[in-house]
């Protein structure tokens, strides 16, 4: 066995053997198909099946120990003693796995933060990383767009699973990464994926509708997010809370109750990081804000008030982690657009602009369009759609938000996945109303929308942001909104 393969005893990983005695393990897996000889297999209760069903398969592949809950233990005890493998039973096996993975891989960047909220996680994590880099730190952001910054890696999840996450964190720490900003998705929090991460600070951006396919109720969805402050962030951590959100007060209460230092961000007088005013123009905005009562000015090459709020949230996180506030303020002028978030991707010969944005919730569509309005003198055209195999109830609300906040609406396909695209569009159209134009093919919708642009107008292509593929059925077809917009502009302006 190569010497760089980490090894550890179960007890050293905080896992107490229930039967079979302590073991040296050479790896961890949650999927029986990924088990290697010497592994601990975590047989987790799932939404579809119980991982315990796959214990025989895991043992056949060489697993020497199994971590599971009580229900799982009852199912696998006999098979384990027959194979001479160790059983570990935990009240919460997902949390036990997260702690074990952190100990197994050993290292993580010394300064880590996490961001939760329905919208804005990727943006805040990216700005946090950018500020750290301007200050001279080796920094990354980890989330929907993969790992970016001083280290690059793709990612299938917004919040990676604990094993993948801690392998990655250890690898990055070894290469000298000292600062990491993570996204904490509600799935990730509910499944305790980041419980083994040592956080210095955490932020809450906002709470609106999404993922009601996974979380049974709004309360469950909120409880998952609140877990970041109520459980994951330690007592000596710093909580950065957006007080403009109706749930800000409740989140700040949770942080206070844990004894965490709270930095409030928002428009209100009570906020330590307070937005005082902004002057939007075609290429960005001048922003006036106050840090602990002291007014500051910065020029941001970013569109939309929500991006200014995301920047202030990121600044508060960096300050919360100990950076000098004045240096942080000075760094803000260097920030650049987050890929696929209110990103200007093309300009027509007549001056009309095209933006790509990742708004895929009703609130995000409303926020993105109203944020764009003060930067635009003419009309706003929007392209909107909704993804298949996701929260169905948000579809008409997204259509409605588009009609309420734009002057012209095109309804098209997002990622239909395994659903019938026509039915998804019909649900979006129901909210968008009779004035909306339905065009199934996304490339055609972009071409038609770009064609409507007159001087001073802007088009917002919502929903897919940085994505480079369109998922139809289970296949992924190359598709990039930014590229399609450039092609449409070039074609209509007679450049190709
Ligand atoms: C809905 C959801 O989050 N599901 C996660 C959950 O799976 P599950 O409970 O559905 O698992 P299951 O299919 O019932 O199987 C139970 C167990 O048996 C195991 N198994 C299954 C089959 C097999 O042959 N062998 C085997 O061992 C599975 O690995 C699992 O541990 O537990 C699994 C193991 O921890 C996760 O991999 C899986 O994430 C899946 C891949 C996923 O797609 N999650 C998405 C929805 C997600 O997490 N998204 C958020 C972003 C959301 C957002 O903000 O937009 C993210 O952070 O990326
Ligand atoms: N602070 C905010 N308030 C409201 N809407 C926002 C905010 N920040 C971003 N948005 C909207 O949400 C979209 C997604 O932003 P971002 O990718 O930063 O969010 P996210 O929380 O990471 O999303 P995901 O759940 O997909 O990971 C943006 O394109 C924008 O339309
Ligand atoms: N992380 C989100 C992204 C949605 C992006 C949108 N393009 C879609 O496919 O619905 C989700 O998986 O729900
Ligand atoms: Mg994200």
From TrEMBL:
- In this chain the Mur ligase C-terminal domain maps to 340-465
Which keywords annotate this record? ATP-binding, Cell cycle, Cell division, Cell shape, Cell wall biogenesis/degradation, Cytoplasm, Ligase, Magnesium, Nucleotide-binding, Peptidoglycan synthesis
Q: What is its EC number?
A: 6.3.2.13
Top enzyme class:
ligase
TM spans (from-to): none
Cofactor entry: Mg(2+)
Q: Give the motif span (Meso-diaminopimelate recognition motif).
A: 414-417
Q: Where does meso-2,6-diaminopimelate bind?
A: 390, 414-417, 463, 467
The reply on keyword Ligase is yes
- List positions binding UDP-N-acetyl-alpha-D-muramoyl-L-alanyl-D-glutamate: 32, 158-159, 185, 191, 193
- UniProt pathway annotation: Cell wall biogenesis; peptidoglycan biosynthesis
Q: Where is the Mur ligase N-terminal catalytic domain?
A: 25-104
Ranges where the Mur ligase central domain occurs: 115-317
Question: Can you tell which superkingdom this protein's organism belongs to?
Answer: Bacteria
Residues the record lists as N6-carboxylysine modifications: 225
The keyword Ligase appears for this protein: yes
Name its cellular compartments: Cytoplasm
PANTHER family per the record?
A: MUR LIGASE FAMILY MEMBER, UDP-N-ACETYLMURAMOYL-L-ALANYL-D-GLUTAMATE--2,6-DIAMINOPIMELATE LIGASE MURE HOMOLOG, CHLOROPLASTIC
Report the NCBIfam families cross-referenced here: murE, PRK00139.1-2, PRK00139.1-4
Job of this protein: Catalyzes the addition of meso-diaminopimelic acid to the nucleotide precursor UDP-N-acetylmuramoyl-L-alanyl-D-glutamate (UMAG) in the biosynthesis of bacterial cell-wall peptidoglycan.
Q: Which HAMAP family match?
A: MurE
Q: Write down what this protein is called.
A: UDP-N-acetylmuramoyl-L-alanyl-D-glutamate--2,6-diaminopimelate ligase
Name its species. Thioclava litoralis
């Amino acid at each position: 066995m190569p010497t760089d393969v980490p090894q550890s005893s179960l007890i050293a990983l905080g896992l107490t053997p229930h039967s079979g005695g302590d073991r040296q393990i050479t790896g961890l897996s949650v999927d029986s198909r990924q088990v290697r000889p010497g592994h601990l297999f975590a047989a987790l209760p799932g939404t579809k099946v119980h991982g315990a069903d796959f214990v025989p398969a895991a043992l056949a592949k060489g697993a020497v120990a199994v971590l599971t809950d009580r229900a799982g233990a009852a199912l696998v005890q006999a098979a384990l003693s027959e194979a001479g493998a160790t059983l570990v039973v935990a009240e919460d096996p997902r949390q036990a796995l997260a702690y074990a993975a952190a100990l197994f891989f050993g290292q993580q960047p010394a300064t880590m933060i996490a961001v939760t909220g329905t919208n804005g996680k990727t943006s805040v994590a990216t700005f946090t990383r950018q500020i750290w880099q301007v200050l001279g730190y080796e920094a990354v952001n980890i989330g929907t767009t993969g790992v970016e910054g001083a280290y690059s890696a793709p990612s299938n999840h917004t919040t990676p699973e604990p094993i993948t996450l801690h392998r990655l964190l250890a690898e990055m720490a070894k290469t000298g990464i000292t600062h990491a900003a993570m996204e904490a998705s509600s799935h990730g929090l509910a499944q305790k994926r980041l419980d083994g991460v040592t956080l210095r600070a955490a932020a809450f951006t906002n709470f609106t509708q999404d993922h009601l396919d996974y979380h049974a109720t709004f309360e469950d969805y909120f409880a998952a997010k609140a877990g970041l402050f109520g459980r994951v962030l330690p007592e000596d951590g710093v909580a950065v809370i957006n007080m403009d959100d109706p749930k800000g007060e409740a989140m700040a209460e949770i942080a206070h109750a844990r004894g965490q230092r709270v930095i409030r961000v928002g428009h209100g007088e009570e906020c330590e990081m307070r937005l005082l005013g902004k002057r939007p123009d075609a290429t960005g905005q001048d922003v006036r804000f106050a840090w602990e009562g002291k007014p500051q000015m910065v020029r941001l090459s970013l569109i939309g008030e929500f991006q200014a709020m995301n920047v202030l949230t990121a600044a508060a996180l960096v300050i919360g982690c100990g950076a000098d506030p004045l240096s942080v303020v000075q760094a803000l002028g260097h920030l650049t657009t987050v890929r696929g978030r209110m990103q200007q991707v093309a300009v027509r010969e007549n001056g009309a602009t095209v933006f790509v944005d990742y708004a895929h919730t009703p609130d995000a569509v409303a926020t993105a369009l109203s944020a764009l309005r003060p930067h635009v003198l003419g009309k706003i055209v929007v392209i909107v759609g909704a993804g298949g195999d996701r929260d169905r109830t948000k579809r008409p609300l997204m259509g409605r938000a588009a009609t309420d906040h734009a002057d012209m609406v095109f309804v098209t396909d997002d990622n239909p996945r395994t659903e019938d695209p026509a039915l998804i569009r019909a649900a979006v159209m129901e909210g968008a109303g009779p004035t909306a134009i339905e065009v199934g093919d996304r490339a055609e919708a972009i071409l038609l929308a770009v064609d409507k642009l007159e001087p001073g107008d802007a088009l917002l292509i919502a929903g897919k942001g940085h994505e480079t593929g369109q998922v139809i059925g289970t296949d992924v077809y190359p598709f990039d909104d930014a590229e399609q917009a450039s092609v449409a502009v070039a074609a209509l302006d007679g450049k190709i």
